[in-house]
């Protein structure tokens, strides 16, 4: 396992079996302090099982897992106070008011405050952070779906977690709320040095948020890298588009940089509206999953280099 003191999440040879079925096969990855990891994968790939093991809610069949320096199976209250969880949905406490509930929950974290991390968040600051100031005194039962989701996020971070798990956190968000959420994740990672591991089916969101992307398929990590690394590793041809003398041109090439260089050498300032369109994260994701599902690789893939051979 990784020994770097900056590593807060370290997984090696993680396996999970239900009866006679293996749902996780030697899963291995790590995350550093302040890093945002996004886990992608088809339904049934093992994402939720993996996260539940890391949270300490499910016992693994085999492998080593280190979360904030401890095995999640044996994490005590101090360890759990350092972790935040945003579930897909949570419908309790409908009669509580927003500020009242967050203040109450925050009180549980006060004994675990440290010189480095003062817990919990100030209640009004937290409410403003998730965009619920106007609803601070509203009963939870009266909140809209998007407002309720903002509250779910606030509940997950009320204790200023060092490691935050989020399962489909923006489900039900409108575009404005989603943009605010992205800003919140970047603030937590950049200013609070919170490590974030989240799952999503929104590939555009993954590209905007992730420092690294893990793609899980068939219970295996089939790719691990930044959005740019994954796109570059799987990209084949790129489309170069430009205008010259009012005429639009499109050329497909596997060497776009070289082609653009030659294009300017030949035509110079006559080139206008130049665009180079490479594979999107969605193209990359689909290519990697299809490659795995078609069994083109005989052995489990454990690295970006292996998946792109």
UniProtKB/TrEMBL annotation:
GO MF assignments: ATP binding; ATP hydrolysis activity
Q: Does the keyword Nucleus apply?
A: no
Q: Which segments constitute the ABC transporter domain?
A: 9-243
User: Per its UniProt record, what SUPFAM superfamilies does this chain match?
Assistant: P-loop containing nucleoside triphosphate hydrolases
Where is this chain's protein located in or outside the cell?
Cell membrane
Question: What's its membrane topology?
Answer: Peripheral membrane protein
Keywords assigned: Antibiotic resistance, ATP-binding, Coiled coil, Nucleotide-binding, Transport
Its GO biological process annotations read: response to antibiotic
Pfam families registered for this protein in UniProt: ABC_tran
Give the protein name, as stated in the record.
ABC-2 type transport system ATP-binding protein
């Amino acid at each position: 396992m990784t020994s770097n003191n900056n590593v807060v999440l370290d997984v090696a040879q993680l396996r999970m079996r239900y009866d006679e079925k293996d749902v996780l096969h030697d899963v291995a990855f790590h995350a550093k302090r302040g890093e945002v990891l996004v886990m992608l994968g088809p339904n049934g790939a093992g994402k939720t099982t993996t996260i539940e093991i890391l949270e300490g809610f499910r016992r693994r069949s085999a492998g080593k897992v280190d979360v904030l320096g401890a095995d999640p199976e044996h994490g005590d209250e101090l360890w759990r106070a350092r972790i935040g969880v945003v579930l897909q949905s949570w419908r309790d406490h409908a009669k509580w008011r927003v500020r009242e509930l967050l203040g109450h929950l925050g009180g549980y974290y006060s004994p675990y405050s440290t010189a480095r991390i003062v817990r919990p968040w100030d209640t009004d600051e937290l409410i403003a952070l998730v965009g619920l100031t106007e609803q601070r005194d509203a009963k939870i039962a009266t909140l809209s779906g998007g407002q309720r989701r903002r509250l779910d996020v606030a509940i997950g971070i009320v204790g200023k977690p060092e490691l935050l798990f989020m399962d489909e956190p923006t489900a039900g968000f409108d575009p404005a709320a989603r943009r605010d959420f992205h800003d919140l994740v970047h603030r937590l990672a950049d200013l609070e040095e919170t490590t974030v591991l989240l799952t999503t089916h929104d590939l555009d969101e993954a590209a905007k948020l992730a420092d690294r992307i893990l793609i899980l398929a068939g219970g295996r990590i089939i790719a691990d890298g930044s959005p740019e690394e994954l796109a570059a590793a799987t990209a084949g041809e790129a489309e170069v588009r430009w205008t010259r003398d009012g005429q639009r041109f499109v050329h497909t090439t596997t060497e776009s940089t070289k082609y653009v260089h030659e294009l300017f050498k030949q035509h110079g300032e006559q080139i206008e509206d130049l665009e180079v369109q490479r594979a999107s994260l969605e193209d990359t994701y689909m290519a990697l999953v299809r490659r795995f599902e078609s069994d083109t690789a005989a052995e489990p893939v454990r690295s970006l280099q292996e998946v792109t051979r």
